[in-house]
Amino acid sequence: MDQPAIDLSLRLLLNLKPWRNAATWHIAFSGGLDSTVLLHLLATLAKTHSLPALSAIHVHHGLQAVADAWPQHCQSICDALGVPLKIIRVQVKPGASLERAARDARYDAFRAATQVNEMLLTAQHRDDQAETLLFRLLRGAGVRGLSGMPQQRALGRGHLLRPLLDVTRAELEAYAVEHQLRWIEDPSNQDRQFSRNYLRHQVFPVLAERWPQAVATMARSAAHLSEAQELLDELAQIDLATANSTSDFDWLGVPSLALAALAQRSAARQRNALSHWLATRTRLPDSDHWSGWENLRDAVGDARPVWRLADGELHRGGGRIWWLSGGWLRGFSSEVDWPDPALPLQLPDNGVLSINGAIPVGPLHVRYRTGGEVMNLPDRGHRDMKRLLNERGVPGFVRGRLPLLYRGEQLLAVAGLPGLNGSATDGWVLQWVPPSEDQGLS
């Protein structure tokens, strides 16, 4: 093996050093040049170094007739290298961008296949990083987007690693030729209607004629922007630490932030902190849609503003902003009978109710607010439910979900609110466990 090949192997090994104690390294194996070189490098290194168990994953999108032969090709390569292969067939959802839909389907498969203490290794290289930077720049991305592809990030229950980001496409091609590797040439890679292919075949050759080091310098810029993003993330954590105060309604399990702590920051710091907080919960809005945050923040009086995002909604209430998604945005039954109050009651799409202590005389049933409810309280007489909820600062989004325990037309208890959730005289308390993520809330 000559010097360039040795250098490439050692660079790969050095980039993967922090992850040598993982249980498994999965290689995302399309059968193309880049992933074929990565697979060959790792299989060769495994003969002389103690590495985690290697396996390959091939995702079959079924978008081209010619692709039907690719799983067999990948299987033959893996058999020759002694690496087990898992073939996953996916359905690509139709949409405006076939590129994005295929990528989403592919990474959904990778996410499901990557378990605790396992790593998925992909073969993106320095040229890919430069293309990503220019592509995102043309789409008006901010610092986070322009920082390019991270070398590592969480994926599923494990991590995704990109150990070849400091390697050029030319180096991979030289390695493949030297070792007489066979790889797939995807016809779609020549289709210039796809934005990345257009950049690769039309734009970068022109840039390289004028600036031969364009790819290297753009990749370096992505690294600088990645460092800048790290600083912004640190600033976001500082700002969020003050907004992550406790609330009387933390028991709901709904993520929330204190609005006043955010509102005292500059507009740019507000957006930075919220972007950091929302990044794990939803696709982030583009610049034109941040007016939704301003409307939410600046609403006055008893307004109940909502900022709708791709994967959920931000609500405002009780001096806080609340992130609602999944089951919190779905409907639920309006009335449920409770035939045996000695047993917990599963509420359709709304958690579980139980009674601790002496069981009230029945028959009992559960309703939800429709307006005009009145409750008889010891020493206070009949009180309007709306006023009682206002006194306790109950956020608007949960008011319609609070289970109300009735006996006939008599309102006995309101779940979740101390002082209203049972009878101290008769010795019982109504307990409500709101829906968890496993029960349909995300």
Automatic annotation (TrEMBL):
Protein name: tRNA(Ile)-lysidine synthase
Protein family: Belongs to the tRNA(Ile)-lysidine synthase family.
Nucleotide-binding among keywords: yes
Residues binding ATP, per UniProt: 30-35
InterPro entries assigned: Lysidine-tRNA-synth_C (IPR012796), Rossmann-like_a/b/a_fold (IPR014729), TilS/TtcA_N (IPR011063), tRNA_Ile_lys_synt (IPR012094), tRNA_Ile_lys_synt_N (IPR012795), tRNA_Ile_lys_synt_subst-bd (IPR015262)
Function recorded in the entry: Ligates lysine onto the cytidine present at position 34 of the AUA codon-specific tRNA(Ile) that contains the anticodon CAU, in an ATP-dependent manner. Cytidine is converted to lysidine, thus changing the amino acid specificity of the tRNA from methionine to isoleucine.
One Pfam assignment: TilS
SMART domains assigned: TilS_C (SM00977)
Enzyme Commission number, as recorded: 6.3.4.19
Gene that this sequence comes from: tilS
Entry comment, domain topic: The N-terminal region contains the highly conserved SGGXDS motif, predicted to be a P-loop motif involved in ATP binding.
Subcellular localization, as worded in the UniProt entry: Cytoplasm
Record keywords: ATP-binding, Cytoplasm, Ligase, Nucleotide-binding, tRNA processing
Keyword Transferase: no
CDD domains linked to this entry: TilS_N
Catalytically driven reaction(s): cytidine(34) in tRNA(Ile2) + L-lysine + ATP = lysidine(34) in tRNA(Ile2) + AMP + diphosphate + H(+)
Gene Ontology molecular function: tRNA(Ile)-lysidine synthase activity
Stored PANTHER family: TRNA(ILE)-LYSIDINE SYNTHASE-RELATED
Domain Lysidine-tRNA(Ile) synthetase C-terminal: 364-432
Top-level taxonomic group: Bacteria
Main location: cytoplasm
